[in-house]
Target: GntR family transcriptional regulator
Amino acid sequence: MARTDERFRATFNAVLDECSALKPGDLLASELALAAQFDVSRTVIRSILERLDMIGIVQWRGRQKALMRMPRQDERLTVSASQVSPEELERQFLYWILRFDVPPGTPLNVAELARQFRVSVHGLQEFLASLSRFGLVKRRPKNGWELVGFTSDFAIELSDFRMMIELNAISQLIALPDSHQIWHRIEELDEAHRALAAAIDARFHDFSLLDERFHLTIGSITRNRFVAEFQKVISLIFHYHYQWDKKDERERNAAAIDEHLRLIAALKARDETAALAAARDHLGTSKQTLLSSLRIHALS
Model:
Protein backbone atom coordinates (compact mmCIF):
# COMPACT_ATOMS: atom_id res chain seq x y z
CA MET A 1 0.00 0.00 0.00
CA ALA A 2 1.53 3.35 -1.08
CA ARG A 3 2.18 6.02 1.48
CA THR A 4 -0.12 8.38 -0.38
CA ASP A 5 -2.98 5.94 0.02
CA GLU A 6 -5.88 7.30 2.06
CA ARG A 7 -5.97 4.20 4.21
CA PHE A 8 -2.36 4.74 5.21
CA ARG A 9 -3.01 8.40 5.99
CA ALA A 10 -6.11 7.70 8.07
CA THR A 11 -4.35 4.92 9.99
CA PHE A 12 -1.25 7.07 10.53
CA ASN A 13 -3.45 9.74 12.12
CA ALA A 14 -5.20 7.10 14.23
CA VAL A 15 -1.82 5.84 15.49
CA LEU A 16 -0.90 9.45 16.34
CA ASP A 17 -4.09 9.59 18.42
CA GLU A 18 -2.99 6.37 20.13
CA CYS A 19 0.40 7.94 20.88
CA SER A 20 -1.31 11.05 22.27
CA ALA A 21 -3.02 8.89 24.89
CA LEU A 22 0.39 7.61 26.12
CA LYS A 23 3.28 9.24 27.95
CA PRO A 24 6.90 9.50 26.73
CA GLY A 25 8.63 6.27 27.63
CA ASP A 26 5.49 4.14 27.26
CA LEU A 27 5.65 1.21 24.85
CA LEU A 28 3.35 0.75 21.88
CA ALA A 29 1.63 -2.57 21.28
CA SER A 30 3.10 -5.22 18.97
CA GLU A 31 2.84 -4.87 15.19
CA LEU A 32 0.32 -7.70 15.12
CA ALA A 33 -1.80 -6.05 17.82
CA LEU A 34 -1.71 -2.66 16.08
CA ALA A 35 -2.63 -4.23 12.74
CA ALA A 36 -5.63 -5.93 14.34
CA GLN A 37 -6.65 -2.80 16.25
CA PHE A 38 -6.67 -0.58 13.17
CA ASP A 39 -7.78 -3.30 10.72
CA VAL A 40 -4.80 -2.92 8.36
CA SER A 41 -1.93 -5.14 7.31
CA ARG A 42 1.32 -5.44 9.23
CA THR A 43 3.02 -3.90 6.18
CA VAL A 44 1.01 -0.70 6.70
CA ILE A 45 1.85 -0.69 10.41
CA ARG A 46 5.55 -1.16 9.67
CA SER A 47 5.44 1.76 7.21
CA ILE A 48 3.78 3.92 9.86
CA LEU A 49 6.34 2.90 12.48
CA GLU A 50 9.17 3.73 10.08
CA ARG A 51 7.73 7.21 9.57
CA LEU A 52 7.21 7.72 13.32
CA ASP A 53 10.78 6.60 13.98
CA MET A 54 12.11 8.88 11.26
CA ILE A 55 10.40 12.00 12.67
CA GLY A 56 11.37 11.15 16.24
CA ILE A 57 7.98 10.38 17.78
CA VAL A 58 8.79 6.71 18.33
CA GLN A 59 12.07 4.88 18.80
CA TRP A 60 11.69 1.51 17.07
CA ARG A 61 14.31 -1.05 18.05
CA GLY A 62 13.44 -4.64 17.19
CA ARG A 63 10.18 -5.56 18.89
CA GLN A 64 10.31 -2.57 21.24
CA LYS A 65 8.57 0.63 20.18
CA ALA A 66 8.91 3.41 22.76
CA LEU A 67 7.19 6.78 22.60
CA MET A 68 9.88 9.48 22.64
CA ARG A 69 7.72 12.60 22.51
CA MET A 70 4.12 13.68 22.07
CA PRO A 71 2.89 14.17 18.47
CA ARG A 72 2.16 17.67 17.16
CA GLN A 73 -1.00 18.65 15.34
CA ASP A 74 0.97 19.71 12.25
CA GLU A 75 2.37 16.17 11.92
CA ARG A 76 -1.02 14.73 11.01
CA LEU A 77 -1.47 13.74 7.37
CA THR A 78 -4.14 15.27 5.17
CA VAL A 79 -7.02 12.89 4.51
CA SER A 80 -9.65 13.41 1.83
CA ALA A 81 -13.26 13.89 2.84
CA SER A 82 -14.27 10.43 1.63
CA GLN A 83 -16.79 8.85 3.97
CA VAL A 84 -15.77 6.32 6.58
CA SER A 85 -17.76 3.15 7.12
CA PRO A 86 -20.38 3.00 9.93
CA GLU A 87 -18.16 0.49 11.75
CA GLU A 88 -15.14 2.80 11.54
CA LEU A 89 -17.22 5.78 12.71
CA GLU A 90 -18.46 3.77 15.70
CA ARG A 91 -14.91 2.77 16.60
CA GLN A 92 -13.55 6.32 16.20
CA PHE A 93 -16.32 7.90 18.25
CA LEU A 94 -16.05 5.41 21.12
CA TYR A 95 -12.27 5.79 21.05
CA TRP A 96 -12.72 9.56 21.36
CA ILE A 97 -15.03 9.14 24.38
CA LEU A 98 -13.07 6.45 26.16
CA ARG A 99 -9.47 7.51 25.59
CA PHE A 100 -9.63 11.32 25.69
CA ASP A 101 -11.60 11.79 28.91
CA VAL A 102 -14.57 13.65 27.43
CA PRO A 103 -16.56 14.59 30.57
CA PRO A 104 -20.28 13.78 31.04
CA GLY A 105 -22.54 16.66 30.05
CA THR A 106 -20.27 17.81 27.21
CA PRO A 107 -22.33 19.37 24.37
CA LEU A 108 -21.43 17.70 21.07
CA ASN A 109 -20.49 20.05 18.25
CA VAL A 110 -21.88 17.98 15.39
CA ALA A 111 -20.31 20.06 12.61
CA GLU A 112 -16.85 19.89 14.21
CA LEU A 113 -17.11 16.18 14.98
CA ALA A 114 -18.33 15.46 11.45
CA ARG A 115 -15.15 17.06 10.09
CA GLN A 116 -13.00 15.19 12.61
CA PHE A 117 -14.54 11.79 11.78
CA ARG A 118 -14.84 12.51 8.01
CA VAL A 119 -18.60 12.00 7.76
CA SER A 120 -21.49 14.19 6.72
CA VAL A 121 -23.39 16.11 9.40
CA HIS A 122 -26.50 14.11 8.53
CA GLY A 123 -24.57 10.85 8.81
CA LEU A 124 -23.25 11.80 12.25
CA GLN A 125 -26.75 12.83 13.39
CA GLU A 126 -28.07 9.40 12.39
CA PHE A 127 -25.17 7.71 14.17
CA LEU A 128 -25.80 9.67 17.39
CA ALA A 129 -29.47 8.72 17.22
CA SER A 130 -28.50 5.05 17.02
CA LEU A 131 -25.95 5.44 19.82
CA SER A 132 -28.54 7.02 22.12
CA ARG A 133 -30.04 3.53 22.55
CA PHE A 134 -26.98 2.60 24.59
CA GLY A 135 -27.34 5.58 26.92
CA LEU A 136 -24.02 7.19 26.00
CA VAL A 137 -25.55 10.29 24.36
CA LYS A 138 -28.89 12.07 24.58
CA ARG A 139 -30.72 14.84 22.77
CA ARG A 140 -30.58 18.27 24.40
CA PRO A 141 -33.90 19.99 25.21
CA LYS A 142 -33.19 22.83 22.78
CA ASN A 143 -31.76 20.77 19.94
CA GLY A 144 -28.32 19.25 19.61
CA TRP A 145 -26.68 16.36 21.43
CA GLU A 146 -24.99 15.87 24.79
CA LEU A 147 -22.57 13.21 25.99
CA VAL A 148 -24.06 11.34 28.96
CA GLY A 149 -20.67 9.79 29.63
CA PHE A 150 -19.23 6.59 30.95
CA THR A 151 -19.89 6.42 34.70
CA SER A 152 -19.49 3.71 37.34
CA ASP A 153 -23.23 3.05 37.21
CA PHE A 154 -23.01 2.62 33.44
CA ALA A 155 -20.07 0.23 33.89
CA ILE A 156 -21.99 -1.88 36.41
CA GLU A 157 -25.09 -2.06 34.22
CA LEU A 158 -22.97 -2.86 31.17
CA SER A 159 -21.13 -5.66 33.03
CA ASP A 160 -24.37 -7.14 34.35
CA PHE A 161 -25.90 -7.12 30.86
CA ARG A 162 -22.74 -8.70 29.46
CA MET A 163 -23.09 -11.46 32.06
CA MET A 164 -26.65 -12.24 30.91
CA ILE A 165 -25.67 -12.31 27.24
CA GLU A 166 -22.62 -14.53 27.67
CA LEU A 167 -24.17 -17.04 30.08
CA ASN A 168 -27.01 -17.51 27.61
CA ALA A 169 -24.51 -17.85 24.74
CA ILE A 170 -22.51 -20.49 26.65
CA SER A 171 -25.61 -22.61 27.24
CA GLN A 172 -26.38 -22.42 23.53
CA LEU A 173 -22.77 -23.17 22.57
CA ILE A 174 -22.58 -26.31 24.74
CA ALA A 175 -25.60 -27.75 22.93
CA LEU A 176 -24.08 -27.42 19.46
CA PRO A 177 -23.02 -30.59 17.60
CA ASP A 178 -19.36 -31.54 17.28
CA SER A 179 -19.51 -30.71 13.58
CA HIS A 180 -20.29 -27.05 14.21
CA GLN A 181 -17.53 -24.62 13.17
CA ILE A 182 -17.50 -22.99 16.60
CA TRP A 183 -15.51 -25.91 18.02
CA HIS A 184 -12.69 -25.27 15.56
CA ARG A 185 -12.65 -21.62 16.69
CA ILE A 186 -12.58 -22.74 20.33
CA GLU A 187 -9.53 -24.92 19.55
CA GLU A 188 -7.84 -21.93 17.90
CA LEU A 189 -8.56 -19.82 20.96
CA ASP A 190 -7.13 -22.52 23.20
CA GLU A 191 -3.90 -22.54 21.18
CA ALA A 192 -3.71 -18.73 21.08
CA HIS A 193 -4.14 -18.46 24.83
CA ARG A 194 -1.48 -21.07 25.53
CA ALA A 195 0.94 -19.36 23.13
CA LEU A 196 0.36 -16.00 24.81
CA ALA A 197 0.73 -17.55 28.28
CA ALA A 198 4.08 -19.04 27.25
CA ALA A 199 5.34 -15.62 26.13
CA ILE A 200 3.51 -13.52 28.71
CA ASP A 201 6.60 -11.58 29.85
CA ALA A 202 7.13 -10.11 26.38
CA ARG A 203 3.57 -10.09 25.06
CA PHE A 204 1.25 -9.28 27.97
CA HIS A 205 0.20 -6.05 26.18
CA ASP A 206 -1.43 -8.23 23.50
CA PHE A 207 -4.03 -9.66 25.87
CA SER A 208 -6.74 -7.03 25.31
CA LEU A 209 -7.07 -8.02 21.65
CA LEU A 210 -7.22 -11.72 22.51
CA ASP A 211 -9.80 -10.95 25.20
CA GLU A 212 -11.92 -9.11 22.62
CA ARG A 213 -11.64 -12.05 20.19
CA PHE A 214 -12.52 -14.54 22.94
CA HIS A 215 -15.72 -12.82 24.02
CA LEU A 216 -16.86 -12.02 20.48
CA THR A 217 -16.42 -15.69 19.55
CA ILE A 218 -18.63 -16.84 22.42
CA GLY A 219 -21.20 -14.14 21.70
CA SER A 220 -21.31 -14.99 17.99
CA ILE A 221 -23.47 -18.01 18.82
CA THR A 222 -26.40 -15.81 19.82
CA ARG A 223 -28.41 -15.15 16.67
CA ASN A 224 -30.15 -12.01 17.88
CA ARG A 225 -29.80 -8.70 16.06
CA PHE A 226 -30.32 -6.63 19.21
CA VAL A 227 -27.73 -8.57 21.18
CA ALA A 228 -25.29 -8.27 18.26
CA GLU A 229 -25.53 -4.47 18.31
CA PHE A 230 -24.89 -4.29 22.03
CA GLN A 231 -22.01 -6.76 21.81
CA LYS A 232 -20.06 -4.47 19.49
CA VAL A 233 -20.30 -1.58 21.94
CA ILE A 234 -19.55 -3.81 24.94
CA SER A 235 -16.49 -5.24 23.20
CA LEU A 236 -15.04 -1.84 22.33
CA ILE A 237 -15.62 -0.43 25.81
CA PHE A 238 -13.95 -3.36 27.56
CA HIS A 239 -11.12 -3.38 25.00
CA TYR A 240 -10.15 0.25 25.56
CA HIS A 241 -10.72 0.34 29.30
CA TYR A 242 -8.62 -2.79 29.77
CA GLN A 243 -5.61 -0.81 28.50
CA TRP A 244 -5.92 2.08 30.97
CA ASP A 245 -5.03 0.39 34.25
CA LYS A 246 -1.30 -0.39 33.91
CA LYS A 247 -0.88 -1.45 37.56
CA ASP A 248 0.11 -5.14 37.76
CA GLU A 249 -0.86 -5.46 34.08
CA ARG A 250 1.26 -8.55 33.43
CA GLU A 251 -0.04 -10.42 36.47
CA ARG A 252 -3.63 -9.37 35.82
CA ASN A 253 -3.50 -10.46 32.19
CA ALA A 254 -1.85 -13.77 33.09
CA ALA A 255 -4.64 -14.45 35.60
CA ALA A 256 -7.28 -13.58 32.98
CA ILE A 257 -5.67 -16.01 30.53
CA ASP A 258 -5.97 -18.75 33.15
CA GLU A 259 -9.65 -17.86 33.63
CA HIS A 260 -10.23 -18.05 29.88
CA LEU A 261 -8.48 -21.42 29.68
CA ARG A 262 -10.62 -22.75 32.52
CA LEU A 263 -13.74 -21.77 30.57
CA ILE A 264 -12.36 -23.16 27.31
CA ALA A 265 -11.60 -26.50 29.02
CA ALA A 266 -15.16 -26.70 30.34
CA LEU A 267 -16.56 -25.90 26.89
CA LYS A 268 -14.42 -28.57 25.23
CA ALA A 269 -15.60 -31.07 27.87
CA ARG A 270 -19.23 -30.03 27.13
CA ASP A 271 -19.64 -29.43 30.88
CA GLU A 272 -22.29 -26.70 31.07
CA THR A 273 -22.22 -26.39 34.87
CA ALA A 274 -18.45 -25.94 34.97
CA ALA A 275 -18.52 -23.57 31.98
CA LEU A 276 -21.16 -21.32 33.54
CA ALA A 277 -19.27 -21.25 36.84
CA ALA A 278 -16.02 -20.35 35.06
CA ALA A 279 -17.79 -17.64 33.07
CA ARG A 280 -19.36 -16.09 36.19
CA ASP A 281 -15.99 -15.98 37.92
CA HIS A 282 -14.24 -14.45 34.92
CA LEU A 283 -16.93 -11.87 34.17
CA GLY A 284 -16.94 -10.90 37.83
CA THR A 285 -13.20 -10.27 37.62
CA SER A 286 -13.66 -8.30 34.38
CA LYS A 287 -16.29 -6.14 36.06
CA GLN A 288 -13.88 -5.23 38.86
CA THR A 289 -11.12 -4.52 36.31
CA LEU A 290 -13.44 -2.20 34.42
CA LEU A 291 -14.42 -0.31 37.57
CA SER A 292 -10.77 -0.11 38.61
CA SER A 293 -9.80 1.29 35.21
CA LEU A 294 -12.40 4.04 35.64
CA ARG A 295 -10.87 5.04 38.97
CA ILE A 296 -7.35 4.97 37.50
CA HIS A 297 -8.41 7.08 34.53
CA ALA A 298 -10.21 9.58 36.77
CA LEU A 299 -6.96 10.10 38.70
CA SER A 300 -4.71 10.35 35.64
Remarks:
- The mean pLDDT is 83.
